[in-house]
Design brief:
The chain has helices at residues 2-21, 47-71, 77-106, 132-146; strands at 112-116, 121-126, 153-158. The protein has 160 residues and is mainly alpha-helical. β2 (121-126), α4 and β3 form a beta-alpha-beta unit. The termini are far apart.
């Protein structure tokens, strides 16, 4: 059973890698029905805004690639199911990020960006430093929203 799960994960990684490379193929090398859409990438000098934009772009691409795998009839059912589970996990992480960011902003933090992964949570806060009380508020919320232990949560002040 562990071998089949490992094999499924390896195949899924190969498929996602292939999907990421598709935009680099010339027009005559594109699979039939494939349409490349190039969107301008917005840049910002503000580190939190740049991080937020990058996260948004990466997440959009991840969700699209997983949807491609999930809906492809050329891919084994087990791999499509794994892609569905990965997509659901990503969506749950995105919901946790939005919740943490919204609550911390409502509690008076000027600007917050959060990333949630399977084994880690990063909370970037616009501040020169974070007080002990602020850290406790952020930590308690991150633990409650993600189920992660405190050792997996990093609070990162970003200078204004």
């Amino acid at each position: 059973m562990a071998k089949s799960a490992f094999l499924a994960a390896a195949i899924l990684i190969l498929i996602l890698t292939f999907a990421a490379l598709l935009p680099n193929l010339s027009d005559d090398e594109q699979p039939s029905g494939y349409q490349q859409v190039i969107e301008p990438v917005e840049t910002s000098r503000d580190p939190l805004e740049s991080f937020r934009l990058n996260r948004s772009q990466v997440r959009k691409e991840e969700l699209e690639q997983l949807m491609t795998v999930m809906t492809s009839s050329d891919i084994a059912e087990e791999i499509r199911l794994d892609a569905g589970k990965m997509r659901l996990e990503l969506i749950n992480n995105m919901e946790s990020e939005a919740t943490i960011e919204g609550i911390l902003t409502a509690r008076g933090f000027e600007d917050v960006v959060c990333t949630v992964h399977r084994d880690s949570v990063n909370v970037l806060v616009r501040a020169d430093s974070v007080t002990r009380d602020q850290s406790a508020v952020i930590m308690e919320l991150a633990i409650r929203e993600t189920g992660q232990s405190a050792r997996n949560i990093k609070i990162i002040p970003v200078d204004e």
